[in-house]
Amino acid sequence: MFHLILFLFFGAICVAGAVNLLVQSHPINSALSLVVVMASLAGEYLLLGGEFVAAIQVIVYAGAIMVLFLITIMLLNAGKEERTKGSRVAILIGVPGVLIGGVLVTWTLLTRPNAQTVPIGALKGDSGSIARLLFHDFLLPFEVTSVLILIAIMGAVVLASRPEAVARGPRKDGR
Amino acid sequence: MIPLSYYLVLSGILFVCGVLGFLIKRNIITIFMSIELMLNGVNLSFVAFAAQWHSLSGQVFVFFVMVVAAAEAAVGLAIIIAVYRTRETLNVDQVNLLKL
Fold first, then answer.
1. Do the Cβ atoms of A48 and B50 come within 8 Å?
2. CB contact under 8 A, B2 and A120
């Protein structure tokens, strides 16, 4: 019962943040409501026994990635978004389709007779067991992701630098 | 004891909100944030299934999804900065040429 109350509490915050992301017209407000969604999702992960996942959800997602978003919004001085004709077409055709799909999925999941229950705390997702999996069974993908991160860093530096700075190359006078 | 379907429904709601934001929003940064919202919804179903089947592989996959999301955010925001530098706008309807 207590777990159900916690689930509903975090789930309500989560859905409220997601809806607020859609309603707000200024990107900064959308980014802050996305932080709320991610923090409450960390609470849901704790309910499911994923301690390590909840920690990196807060540190990596709500911390690092959202700071990147906020810095970009402030760097580009993004204001309120303006409405154009393309968005109206998307609302008229896309929104009913997406809502129908969501209702269908929800109805299917809720009317399954074999909907089982998740025992809380039965799974210990602490950092020790995650690390044992990560460095034994998933060692190759783990090493490949480090190469991916390196390539992403180099790509971001090349893309975000000014084109004339890339064409000119390194300075000759060593400054 | 919370039924698995509750977690899956919450994950579906988050995913649908992400798709709606992708369709409705015209600001390129907000569209990018909607993609992050979809990734989060899928992560929740990964963790819920990991608890259901008593296998930690689902949580390891969430770790990998987060790594890919971080790389995608870095490259995507760099692309947004490059687009803004040449177009002076963040509205996706005004970005209608493929070349920079």
1. yes
2. yes
Min Cα separation B97/chain A (Å): 16
Strand B2-3 relative to strand A117-118: parallel, antiparallel, unpaired?
antiparallel
Q: Tens digit of pLDDT for each residue in B38-52?
A: 999 999 999 998 888
DSSP, collapsed to helix, strand or coil, labels residue A1 as coil
ipTM score assigned to the predicted complex: 0.90
Tell me what the mean pLDDT of segment B27-56 comes to. 91
Angle at A30 between CA A64 and CA A68, to 5 degrees: 20
| Dist CA A44 CA B43 (whole Å) | 11
Q: Cα-flanking dihedrals φ and ψ of residue A6, to 5°?
A: -60, -40
φ, ψ (nearest 5 deg) of residue A49: 90, 5
CATH topology classification for B4-94: Helix Hairpins (1.10.287)
Domain range A2-81+124-136, CATH class:
mainly alpha
